[in-house]
Every structure is written in structure tokens, then in C-alpha cells.
Design brief:
2 helices, elongated
Length: 66
């Protein structure tokens, strides 16, 4: 019941913005592209670190040496 009440209140109070009120602008695109670039850089760095761990010659749990 309270959830339906909140839904109705939001429906009647929240008005549709005018065409000139909402502007995405270039800053949003710049931020998203920057986040994508940062994610790709972090993924490549993570892969590089994992390769170093694999090549470190550490003993494996699957191949125990007595």
C-alpha cells in the first residue's frame, strides 16, 4: 500500500521537463568515453599482472611437490 501511494505522489508531483530544461551536452559524452578508456587500460594492466603471476614459477595447488 505505501509503495502505491509513493508511486501516485511521484506521478502527480513530477512534471515533464520542457525541451530546453534538459541538455546532455558534450561533458557527458567526454566522461563516458573517459570511463571506457580507463576501463580498457585497467583491463590490459590486469591481464599483464596476471601473466606475471603465471610466469613467476610459484608452486601450484594442482601439482604438489613433496
Amino acid at each position: 500500500m505505501p509503495l502505491q501511494l509513493i508511486t501516485w505522489i511521484v506521478f502527480f508531483v513530477d512534471k515533464v521537463p520542457e525541451d530546453n530544461d534538459v541538455v546532455a551536452g558534450p561533458w557527458g559524452a567526454i566522461v563516458i568515453v573517459g570511463m571506457i578508456v580507463a576501463t580498457v587500460v585497467l583491463l590490459f594492466s590486469f591481464r599483464k599482472q596476471l601473466r606475471r603471476v603465471d610466469n613467476a614459477g610459484l608452486p601450484s595447488k594442482q601439482d604438489p611437490q613433496d
